[in-house]
Design brief:
By secondary structure, the chain is mainly beta. It contains two helices and 25 strands. Strand 15 and strand 16 form a beta hairpin.
């Protein structure tokens, strides 16, 4: 599985940078915990039993989630084993009348610890302070946020256990509210449509670590990015192609060394069914190293009549299309509402991972 992970790493940097763009912004769509957990319907309680198999050994874990009538998580339990000893972590959550989280209680049976976290909000519902206390009521840290008139976080202050200010982070925005400087060494540039066109990451001494440039089509869809990694002295370029429906159908990533010589290229093609659902991913790899044999990788997806994914299958092959590792299969089952009730992962004929889900619905 090491090579499979490596496929994705070449494009991971781009994803991480794009994700970081919204980190400093407070104006995000608020979801309840049903939505965060991808739960459908008014679920009061969800129990998850997870099993992993390796040779003749088996490990198991248990996860419990309890929700109120509007989808807020009010209680969580996690049970796991180390050798034959069972440990339980419990969490309790409390909200104000505006459904803002105002208190967390955490109990850890392994270390016998108890922690309490308190949240404070301003009149706009923006979280302005978070403070953690130990079981003795002593502060462990305090985190303060300040906002501009548009709701953007402009200042973050961190106080340590003695309530001494130990770190301040300042964020800068343009007149449109786009993040320009995250205060942690990352600088952003935008075009006149608000699309990010450049991200630069700098070290503590102001030295450039990474730089990414983005190109878009006339619809504002990303079609190309180029990344320079100063630490590893590598350069990569990714081109993306879409169909008439705006779905990605191909991405090509090429990596070059410090001397400008080509190292490898990853090509990924996507295929969709008539309903617009992804049914096939095909990877192909070209390497400058002739000893590298794993050059093809394929994933297929199947869905039920409700559009739920019920199967994910994958395999890898060499130049002669000879499979070089066992077929990997993931199987999903759902209840009538569409909530996942069973997950299984197999390598060939061997079961390696299994998860069972149970739900208790309100008004049952």
């Amino acid at each position: 599985m090491i090579n499979k992970v490596a496929i994705i790493l070449s494009g991971l940097l781009t994803v991480l940078f794009l994700t970081s763009i919204s980190f400093g912004e407070s104006k995000v769509e608020k979801k309840n915990d049903w939505e965060k957990c991808e739960i459908k319907g008014e679920v009061k309680e969800r129990r998850v039993y997870e099993y992993r198999y390796f040779n003749d050994s088996k490990t198991e874990e248990f996860f419990l989630r309890k929700f109120d009538r509007i989808g807020n998580l009010v209680e969580k339990e996690e049970r796991y084993y180390e050798d034959t000893t069972a440990y339980v972590n419990k969490y309790y959550y409390r909200y104000d009348d505006n459904n803002n989280l105002i208190e967390e209680l955490l109990f850890d049976s392994k270390f016998g610890s108890e922690e309490r976290v308190i949240y404070e909000y301003d009149e706009k519902g923006q979280c302005v302070e978070k403070q953690m206390f130990n079981s003795k009521g002593e502060s462990r840290y305090r985190f303060v946020k300040k906002y501009d008139d548009n709701g953007n976080v402009i200042e973050e202050l961190y106080y340590n256990w003695s309530d001494t200010l130990s770190n301040i982070t300042y964020r800068k925005y343009d007149v449109k509210g786009n993040l320009l400087d995250d205060g942690r060494g990352t600088i952003y540039k935008y075009d006149d449509k608000g699309n990010v066109i450049e991200i630069c990451n700098f070290g503590y001494e102001g030295d450039l670590l990474k730089k990414i440039n983005y190109e878009y089509d006339n619809k504002g869809i990303l079609i190309k990015d180029c990344c320079f990694d100063a630490l590893n002295e590598t350069y990569d370029s990714m081109k993306i192609t879409y169909n008439d429906k705006g779905q990605k159908i191909e991405s090509v990533v090429s990596i070059y060394g410090a001397d400008g010589n080509w190292l490898y290229t990853n090509r990924l093609k996507f295929k969709y069914d008539k309903k617009g659902r992804l049914v096939t991913k095909r990877y192909s790899f070209s390497r400058s190293d002739p000893s590298y044999t794993w050059k093809y990788y394929k994933e297929t997806f199947k869905y039920d009549k409700n559009g739920n994914k019920v199967e994910h299958r994958s395999y890898a092959a060499d130049d002669d299309k000879k499979i070089v590792y066992e077929d990997e299969i993931e199987i999903f089952k759902y209840d009538d509402i569409g909530n996942l009730i069973e997950y299984k992962m197999k390598y060939g004929k061997y079961l390696s991972h299994e998860v069972q889900y149970e739900y208790v619905y309100y008004d049952e």
